[in-house]
Amino acid sequence: MQDFEKLGLFYLGKRHPDGDAVLYESRDLVTHAVCVGMTGSGKTGLCLSLIEEAAIDGVPVIAIDPKGDLGNLLLTFPKLEAGDFRPWVDEDEARRRGVTADALAASEAEKWRKGLTDWGQDGARIARLREAAEFAIYTPGSRAGIPVSILSSFEAPSPAARSDGEAIADRAANTATSLLSLAGVDAPVRSREHTLLATLFSEAWSNGRSLDLPAIIQQVQKPPFDKIGVVDLEAFFPTKDRFELAMRINGLLAAPGFAQWLEGEPLDPASLFYTSSGKPRVAVFSIAHLGDSERMFFVSLLLNQIVAWMRNQSGTSSLRAIVYMDEILGYFPPVANPPSKAPLLTLLKQARAFGVGVVLATQNPMDLDYKGLGNTGTWFLGRLQTERDKTRLLEGLESASGSMDRATADRLLSNLEKRVFLLHNVHASEPILMQTRWTMSYLAGPLSRDQIGRLKTATGGHRTEAGGQKNEAGGQRPEAGGQRTEAGVGKPETGGISSDPGPQASGARPLSSDPPIVPPGIRQYFVPSGSSGSPRYTPVVLGAARVGFGDPKLGIDEVRDVLYAAPMGRGAIALDWNTATRLDIGASDLLGAPSGGTFAEVPSVGLQAKSYATWEKDFSKWLAQSEKLELLRQRDLKLTSNAGENERDFRVRVQDAQRAARDAAIDDLRKKYEPKRAQLAEKIRRAEAAVQRESAQATQQKIQAGLSFGAAILGTLMGRKTFSAATIGRATTAARSAGRTMKESEDIHRASENVEEIREQERKLEDQVADETRTLTEKFAASPEIERIGLTPKRGQVSVQLVGLGWMPASD
Q1: Are strands 227-228 and 231-232 parallel, antiparallel or unpaired?
Q2: Which residues face 433 on adjacent strands?
Q3: SS (HEC) of 377-432
Q4: Predicted pLDDT of residue 499
Q5: Residue pair 277/648 in contact by the 8 Å Cβ criterion
Q6: How far is residue 447's CA from residue 145's CA, in Å, rounded to a whole number?
Q7: Blockwise average pLDDT, block size 10, the chain, 812 residues
Q8: Dist CA 513 CA 511 (whole Å)
Q9: Which of 107, 458, 486, 812 has the most other CB atoms within 10 Å of its CB?
Q10: Which among 495, 506, 512 has a CA at the least distance from the CA of 597?
């Protein structure tokens, strides 16, 4: 086997029938791919191999699985022992074969071990696959796998995304179509039901408001607007009819089991593509257990979420992520427009600029919109069911790609074997036939919900970390005192301060229904109460300031507004800013007067104006020493996290930058050696031409010499006893011809030696390329080291805005 562990290359199989490894350039996938083949063609194995290669390369994948086959990606067994296979073999199949399930498991283990060996793979490569990425299986509407909440699908986009009115309108329209489909409402795009829902979504999201199903139901009955376009709302969609629509949507909430759609991990692509620690994830969404309308609803929501996430990414020419759908039948038809089609078209047209590759697979060529696939650069074409399927596929491919030789493709497609595919890549010089490699994942077939449930304990790669809810590095990990520190966050943040400031405070003093009278010169502020009850106010010292952090070398220029509350005591040390708690509100949120409530007694030191002057100076010094901006730094790539950027997002950014740097290094290496390779190739061509030329001349000379010798001998045999002048001349000519023949032979030898010398130069050049490639591989194979750095405010970067008497509420 050839060495297939190459930078940025996916090992998919070998050329058929010559056996050279097929190494697919990962960047070619940003122009998307389509895989077509009938049942039994090997389509699933090919696509799983592609996902495996992406995972090894650190590329995250979201895979939509309507049939239940993709869960096999979690069945990876580095030890390749029979016991690993035993829970996943088909016991009915064992009975049909007349063997025990244990014997079948042993047979499958041996089969996989041999299959991997034949393709140059082993358990170590499986272990590398499992280490490179996390594999998780999600089951929307079910608790068999990781449950998924659809509520995030109704959340408002980010402030930056809200400026794109066209994107919001598209998402609103697609979400309305999906929701109506799930509710069983047959409403075309221009219907009043669709228009109302799309307007509700668009209006809410444009103003930064998120929605959920109860809010949608309420707003259907009482929309926050009086007109649809220029038509009065009641004339366009009367209250009675809106109530009927609200009841249809309410039926979803009331349906048995629908609550499972509202719990679990959020449908957030950023958290699905990467774990909280920044590790790439292969997220498999198994939807085989859902009904048709539920599948369409979920797929549409997920694709719309991916589109929204994609538009917030920076541009790149490297492969950043893959979106894969195993069976596209019904989701991308040539004529109809189901809710899934619009976001798929958007991805196919726009995702390339963001480094997102879309891979679509189907066994039914008749159900593909080939016009929509015009931006697809790679086609994997396997064995087809009927001649009609082949004809339709060739027509579609011809119209989509435009560069395919139909006659050649027809001939190649007519005699395909199992696991043999025609690979047409617009980035390659010509289409090739390839046989797919052996998958590292065990192909157990579609997984049932019970089997998916067993994966939670049977595999080590099924952790629920989406949304940063797992306590891992970079996530929401508890620190000393129960406070939280993340990249970009200096001081701990809490939602408030204890209503009882401790044994030194005045919490034990009697309460008054009137706020105390304070001397002039003491500013008094009230922290808003988060409850509707009558608050009990406790006195604290509030300090607000604007703190700046700057570092020109790192490109950091950050300003942070902070508000702290410190308890007052009655002892020798009346106030210690080290005990202060940072509030999650700003100074502008403080109130000038209370709204009812009771008040604890203020310690006497808190009623002296000079105390606040001292505390203000102490506050400024304390901030200068304790306030920190914690950042993450990757030195080799010269990347520093932004203020507020968590560790997962920074690690993802580092991985994207590293992949782009790797691809640029590969390009530089190719550019460096391509002229030398071309020069040597030209030298070899000329040298081989010289050999051929010298060989032809030598052959001709041999013929001439033979004729000369023959003439001389013939003259001698004619009976003359003495040589005539002519005979002597012929003999002399023959002798000269013999000499020239020897010279031509020497010329051939020298020319052949010249060819060999140039080929030796070529071999040395390839060895040099291989050495530099290995160096690059070692450089980029290791995970980039990330360090933590902390910036403290410099002189003049702490500006105290206020220090005064504050009142903290706590509900009785």
Answers
A1: antiparallel
A2: 422
A3: CEEEECCCCCHHHHHHHHHHHHHHHCCCCHHHHHHHHCCCCCCEEEEEECCCCCCE
A4: 39
A5: yes
A6: 11
A7: 78 89 94 93 95 95 95 95 93 91 95 95 95 94 91 81 83 88 84 93 90 90 91 92 92 85 90 92 95 91 92 90 94 90 93 96 88 89 88 80 73 87 89 94 92 69 39 35 37 39 43 74 86 81 92 83 90 87 90 83 89 93 90 88 84 88 85 84 78 68 59 57 54 56 64 80 83 79 83 86 90 54
A8: 7
A9: 486
A10: 512
In sequence order, the 6+-apart residues with CB closer than 8 A to the CB of 780 are: 7, 658, 661, 662, 665
- Nearest to 705, CA basis, from 739, 738, 732: 738
pLDDT at 729: 60
List Cβ neighbours of 209 (8 Å cut-off, separation of 6 or more).
156
CA distance 656 to 202: 32
User: What sign for the dihedral angle of Cα 700, 702, 707, 711?
Assistant: positive
Tokens of 160: 């930056």
Match 């196919």 to its residue by tokens: 348
Nearest Cα to Cα of residue 433 among 42, 27, 743: 42
Distance CA 527, CA 806 (A): 7
**Half-sphere exposure (Cβ direction) of 796: Cα atoms closer than 13 Å:** 1
pLDDT for position 726 = 57
**DSSP notation for 13-73:** EEETTT--EEEEEGGGGGG-EEEE--TTSSHHHHHHHHHHHHHHTT--EEEEESSS-GGGG
CA distance 510 to 602: 11
* CA–CA gap between residue 732 and residue 712 (Å, rounded): 9
